[in-house]
TrEMBL record, chains A, B:
Domain CSC1/OSCA1-like cytosolic positions: 189-342
Main location: membrane
Entry membrane topology: Multi-pass membrane protein
GO MF, any single term: calcium-activated cation channel activity
Full protein name: CSC1/OSCA1-like 7TM region domain-containing protein
Sequence similarity: Belongs to the CSC1 (TC 1.A.17) family.
Superkingdom as given in the UniProt entry: Eukaryota
Domain CSC1/OSCA1-like 7TM region: 355-619
Any one Pfam family match given in the protein's UniProt record, by short name: RSN1_7TM
Length: 714, 714
């Protein structure tokens, strides 16, 4: 790719970004768009719709940037929880890393690369006609001693990243403990989920649980709720809710008569009455089914068991309860709202099969996804495109068109394809057997991350058939050499990718295109202005994206340092925009208290090791074998560092220590409200499908909030 | 190798076995050999030395075989502990597996193999001139449908082995629980070892431990013993013990005067006085050092902490105690006699470095060991030997010599080389940071096992340079094909190996050559007939050997079923001989309660998967690709089975369940002797180097037992 193609892509994307910023600055001030741009403030009631018109509303203003910039970490923590803080720290972490890498890259490595003559000498007279490869390490001659500069840069950046990783892990780990100490008593702290409950003949699951815990944990056991099979109930409730929504809509519509419908035999039936009747039927059905479920003993061999202290709940969770390790398996309970109820409907064997199916599905999906990626890669080879589509020959000779096609289109298409990965991965995780939404998203996050690394990084680098790629990994000793050849060759594509995918996706995140379009389409049909839901941050989409950019930055910083300024711009954009979104748009759906960080840490270590392997390969390729040899200890050191961090911090991310639990329990001892809390604990984990619903009555008084609490997720 | 070479080897080894049996049957009846052949009975006092001579003593009698055969599992359990039972069950497990495999192999597969014509048709007229390859799968033509018989055999044997593995795991797991329930209160059940104790300025480790456990475990904490750095003390004590031994020897010798020695200046000094003086010096030195250690606070940040119930000790062991996971690390305490004290002298960082060093050393040792193995393999190629040593040409043409060299010598040399592996591995494990002798041996067992599999199986199969072998494993997709070519080719070597190594080593185990020789040499110098130590079973030598034979049996049963009868004979020998040895010779040094079984299970699964990979390769090589494809699911199923077993049984082998602990604790509540036991608990984990020793006094009254309790192992 030539410099000019990059400049074209840069121009298009900068234009888009500016456009999005300006549009956002105007549109966010229109009251009709409040539910798109500040749903959170609206829901909290801290922002009211002002319908008064003034000129200011039409002039773009950057006030929101200042507010986002000024937001302190404490405010973020109190308003959006620790997960939001961790997310912002990923961005600042990358900013720090790439600031140092950027200084080294731009001011030291870039001039060195340009001074090389292996590919071509730089042409200052017609700058935009230089190939981007001039700026990469490929331009340095074999055996050149200047490669030791790159070698030093690799060591310095690895050391800096490791130092920062340690610092962050330590910080977030201590934040997690602080968060726990400052938290109010919450049901999930006092509760465990027990599965594989053995039931002797003639007794129920409930009796079995009661007997077991009264026998072995008499002093701490409080209560339990056995889980029942409620998938049929749940689908009935969902049907009812849909019908009820429609009914509400009809009732609130002043032009109700319009909707009366001509039936087949000519008789006019009031649609409202019709729906009302259906709803009553469903309700009756629900009542019947529910009593059936309760009486017939449709119990699953799983139960939420609550204890009278956090430490009391932690002991059975940490120990093997029964002599048969497949019975009485305990795990930490999720927050009550976070429980993924549909999961419990499947049996143990089914869950095992599903797990295997998910693994196979993930592998298949990852492999099949290569097909569009390879096609996209074909676009960067104009000559090949001409062979495939001879008709395009005329158009492709126009410089601008060819620049758009090579510089902008490939990464745009790739990005669109990648949009479908997170929902698929989330679906796969949901059938894999996790008991909470947060676990599902955490698992989906890891899946999406590896999917992106494989399908963007490796697929682009080794563009070729699937079998060719698999062959590379089946021949481990040649990996460094093959990476060393293939990775620098794709530098220009990834620079364009950062600009297209990074810049545009971040600014479109600000602009919220899809919610805006939905809101525009819905507006004529809906009168109720309160009918909106506050969205929540989908970490499994956002975290892998940033981590992929970090991977690109770390692997390319010494190969093609030109990528760094673009990455830094992306990170600055993300820093401001996501802070703004946390303030105005997203609500916390659940709180994992920073459990996403270990994924981030692992991904960074992977990036470092990958970079070091490439360095080894490239130094060998450039015939500076001493540098290649000295790169090997760096890999070992990085892996040892990772091992140390796993020992030092990871345990804190799975459970809290006895020390912390006992201290926190003692702090609560004198709290008068604890009695009340323990009373609420007995019903906290009631399956929402088992709670009574009355559509017909609530339909009369438009009791909307009741419905939203009834809606079944998943 | 020809059938005649195998017959030669068979004849030599059968002769040796018979010789050993006859000699054993006679020698064991000589009172002077009691300490070699029945030291255990002697120590227990159940057998007295009869010096009366009778003719019966000179006639070999098989009475001991009958007694060994009749020994029941309960008797074995009560006399030698669960580990001995597990060891014998490994042998019976193999016997069961190879009985079925033997029936299938000899009566179905062997005739099928012989009927093939790929290599040569079998020559019944001159049977002993047939190559052994006639009996192997190599003799079947490519594409022959008869290979489906082998395919079925692979499925049947895999199924049978998995069924038996499940049954045994289940049985031993329940035996383990039963053993726990029936055990008396033992110090290690009530104690944990805590490491990484943080110490604030101005306080000692002891205070720190006391504060922590009184704060967080006030109701269960009993006492603690802080570990001190005693390596200097230990070497002093060892010096003293040696000197004391020599002194004792002199004192008990009636010809004491003889030992008086001419000194440099002509003055005669009584040696006994001289040693006595030295001993007093050491004792004084010891007293000084000990008070120094006690007062100067030479404390290590580790302590044994005892609790008033088993369950109380289990809770801190299972939980993360401190918010910093590298502090207050708890693990189960070993039995007091089993503690490996020298270990504690090293710091955390040193231990980490040692661990790395051990890993590197193991890899280096395994690789370097290939050199003798490859040389040994050279012996099977007579022609190559002639090229190396042209002088031997004349001798090598003699049939008997060449038969001995190809059939007997290679496996004998290999076996001798392998004798040095277990002590080296034990040494490596001992510096790796395990806190008990049993852990060290368990780790050494695994090391020796993989060492044997690599250096006997793979090194023989892929005889060639080290680099060639590593290259094979770096090219994973060709492994089945390469195995399929190389494994059947070595069938005859392994048949000879089973006969030589298996048969002879087992019968020499019975004969106890080395202890017998030692005893013969020592006898003229020692008058005291009570000066002997009961040996203990070295599981890390014996278990890998049996497992290696099981690997050979499982991988070769369908390739060259001729190996199976020899294996069965080996196993029958081992069955009788080891039962005899457990009864008469070996004492239990420690009790892991069956913790060796998971290693056995893993090794069996590895053997199965290896066999299946070879089957896949060989069916592909023989152009029955459908059978090759259908072998793949078997690998997946075997691994899934292993995964299930890990979930189902493995947790029971690391710790006991809450249910078992609480039940056992309740059983003890009414026991009146518990008070006494708790008193003894406070000093159970006292470092033996810190106990007072008085050589000078004990030297006067020949208090031998005192010394043996003082001797420091390791």
């Amino acid at each position: 790719m030539l410099v000019s193609a990059l400049l074209t892509s840069l121009a298009i994307n900068s234009g888009l970004c500016v456009l999005f910023f300006v549009l956002y600055s105007i549109l966010r001030k229109q009251p009709s768009n409040y539910e798109v741009y500040i749903p959170r403030l609206l829901a909290e009631g801290s922002s009211k719709r002002r319908s008064r018109f003034n000129l200011e509303r039409l002039i773009p203003s950057p006030g929101w940037v200042r507010r986002a910039w000024k937001l302190s970490e404490e405010d973020l923590l109190s308003s959006s929880g620790l997960d939001a803080v961790v997310y912002m720290r990923i961005i600042t972490f990358c900013l720090k890393v790439f600031s140092l890498a950027g200084i080294i890259g731009i001011f030291i490595i870039l001039p060195v690369n340009c001074s090389g003559t292996a590919l071509q000498t730089i042409d200052f007279t017609d700058f935009s006609n230089n190939s981007l490869d001039v700026f990469s390490i490929s331009n340095i001659e074999s055996g050149s001693q200047r490669l030791w500069i790159h070698f030093c840069a690799v060591y310095i950046v690895t050391g800096f990243v490791c130092y920062l990783l340690y610092y962050e892990y330590n910080y977030i780990s201590s934040q997690r403990t602080a968060y726990f100490y400052s938290s109010k008593p919450q049901p999930h702290q006092f509760t465990i989920l027990v599965r594989g409950i053995p039931v002797s003949a003639g007794s129920t699951v409930s009796e079995s649980v009661e007997n077991f815990f009264k026998e072995y944990y008499p002093s701490t056991y409080l209560s339990h709720i056995v889980i029942r099979r409620t998938n049929k109930l749940r689908s009935l409730i969902n049907d009812g809710t849909k019908l009820y929504r429609r009914l509400l809509h009809l009732q609130s519509d002043p032009n109700q008569e319009k909707y009366k419908r001509l039936r087949l035999f000519g008789s006019k039936v009031d649609l409202v009455d019709h729906y009302g009747k259906q709803l009553e039927d469903i309700e009756e059905n629900l009542r019947l089914k529910r009593s059936e479920v309760t009486s017939a003993g449709d119990e699953i061999r799983a139960a939420f068991v609550s204890f009278n202290s956090r430490y009391g709940a932690a002991i059975p969770f940490h120990m093997q309860l029964s002599t048969n390790p497949t019975n009485w398996i305990a795990e930490q309970a999720p927050e009550p709202d976070d429980v993924f109820w549909p999961f419990f409907s499947t049996s143990f064997i089914k869950r095992w099969i599903y797990k295997l199916v998910v693994v196979v599905a993930c592998i298949l999906l990852t492999i099949l996804f290569l097909i569009p990626v390879v096609l996209v890669q074909g676009l960067t080879n104009l000559s090949q495109l001409e062979i495939w589509f001879p008709i395009l020959k005329g158009i492709l000779t126009i410089t601008f068109v060819s620049e758009v096609i090579t510089g902008y289109l490939p990464s745009l298409i790739l990005q669109l394809f990648l949009k479908i990965a997170p929902p698929i991965m989330e679906f796969l995780s949901s059938i894999q057997g996790y008991i909470s939404h947060s676990e599902i998203e955490k698992s989906a996050c890891t899946k999406v991350l590896w999917f992106s690394i494989w399908n963007i990084f490796f697929a682009t680098v080794f563009s070729g058939s699937v079998l060719y790629q698999i062959n590379i990994f089946l021949d481990p000793k040649n990996i460094p050499g093959k990476l060393a050849v293939a990775v620098p060759a794709q530098a220009s594509f990834f620079i364009a990718y950062v600009v297209t995918s990074g810049w545009t996706s971040t600014s479109s995140e600000l602009f919220q295109i899809i919610p805006l379009l939905c809101s525009l389409i819905k507006r004529p049909f809906s009168k109720s202005t309160d009918d909106f839901q506050v969205p929540y941050m989908q970490y499994h989409r956002e975290i892998p994206r940033i981590l992929l950019f970090a991977l690109l930055g770390i692997t390319y910083f010494f190969l093609a340092p030109l990528i760094l300024p673009f990455l830094l711009v992306y990170l600055c954009l993300a820093y401001i925009i996501y802070r703004n979104q946390f303030m105005n748009v997203y609500e916390a759906k659940y709180e994992t208290a920073g459990k996403f960080w270990p994924t981030v840490h692992n991904s960074m270590i992977f990036s470092l090791v990958l970079m070091q392997i490439i360095a080894m390969g490239i130094f060998a390729l450039k015939k500076v074998s001493l540098a290649s040899t000295f790169s090997a200890p760096l890999i070992v050191l990085t892996l040892l560092f990772n091992e140390y961090c796993r020992k030092r911090f990871l345990p804190n991310f799975t459970s809290y220590s006895a020390e912390a639990l006992i201290k926190k329990d003692r702090g609560d001892q004198d709290d008068a409200t604890m009695g009340e809390f323990f009373d609420s604990l007995t019903t906290a984990y009631q399956d929402p499908a088992m709670l009574p619903v009355r559509y017909s009555e609530s339909a009369d008084n438009l009791n909307e909030p009741l419905i939203s609490s009834l809606e079944i997720r998943g």
